[in-house]
Amino acid sequence: MKTHLTHARVVLADEVLEDASVLIEDGIIRAINPESGNGAREISLQGQWLMPGMIDLHCDAIEKECEPRAKVLFPHDFACLNIDRRNAAAGITTPFHALSFAHAEWGVRNNDTACDLVRALKTFKRQELVDNRIHVRYEITDITAMPYITTLLDEGGVDLLSIMDHTPGQGQFRHLETYVAYMMGNHGSSREAAEMIAEEKRQARETADDRVLAVMGQARRLGVPTASHDDDDHARVTTMKELGASMSEFPINLETAQAAHAAGLSTIFGAPNVMRGSSQSGNIRAIDAIRAGVADCLCADYAPATMLAAVEALHMREGFPLHEAVRLVSKGPAHAAGLTDRGEIAVGKRADLISVAQPGAHAAISATWVGGRQVFAAHYPQ
């Protein structure tokens, strides 16, 4: 099947082509600005942006599909169906669903539940709209998670592994009160329960190094890319690099982001941070890292729709060239995850594409193609 997308602002890796076209055949981009469509079905995009499908390395929005309210759990196959549709509508063609193995923190962040959800997502691949992948987040203070994660790694159920340490006093939660407020506000925990979990984390942290060494080694042997999380200084970056990490998620200040970038780690910041103009945790503003040239990727974090919103904000509000903004949600993440077949509009790449309309004050996805197959369409009033 051949499709010819015409009259588009085509966003390439290093420039934007005006009134251009892209020819798709058998799920692959066959030509850019061909002389003819060679009998392909023509779709005029009427001046809309045509971008690579976005690649989201870290989003835990699936947790809210599973547990929309504290202790209210929905069936996993229902959650998979709905997050798949949300990503298609958000223009995210390769989402990495971030699932936390942090036993007893709260509902979905329970080892049995998280493990079942990983397997549910793998089963769901037979009917998916987008290319759903698994990002396993290991909370190193959880002693009980190791058997689950090592089994999933051996089963081929992990596409990305990140190492987290949310012990209060460092990283994201530099103060106990910040952690307690997070647990109470986000997860409906009581103060007493939050303080008890914090103390358990402190104690378990003392024996975490051997666990980290073991799980990082296993991931490395299996060729699974790995990331550090909430790096807060140069020493932490150096340690994670030596353990084999290739990404640094949410470095908390500019100095650490610079250290990670200099060490060759792909740095990942939150798209909601860009859209809002600040971090919810009071850490570095993503825009400052982008301006400093030490941001390689944006991720949805917890809100898939913010990926496109961040691109729009960078281009329209901050004045970045469109192709540079788009690179942060496409080619940058593809490079970080070792996905050489996607992430840009180029001949021979997968036809993972999105068209972007401007129906009102905000840009919106009008169509999504995954491997050349249209999986989402919206027709906005003129």
Automatic annotation (TrEMBL):
It comes from the Bacteria. It is an enzyme of class 3 (hydrolase). Residues 306-376 form the Amidohydrolase domain. GO terms for molecular function: hydrolase activity. The keyword Hydrolase applies. InterPro entries: Amidohydro_3, Metal-dep_hydrolase_composite, Metal_Hydrolase, Metallo-dep_Hydrolase, PhnM. Pfam families: Amidohydro_3. Its EC number is 3.6.1.63. PANTHER family: ALPHA-D-RIBOSE 1-METHYLPHOSPHONATE 5-TRIPHOSPHATE DIPHOSPHATASE (PTHR43135). This is Alpha-D-ribose 1-methylphosphonate 5-triphosphate diphosphatase. It comes from Uliginosibacterium flavum.
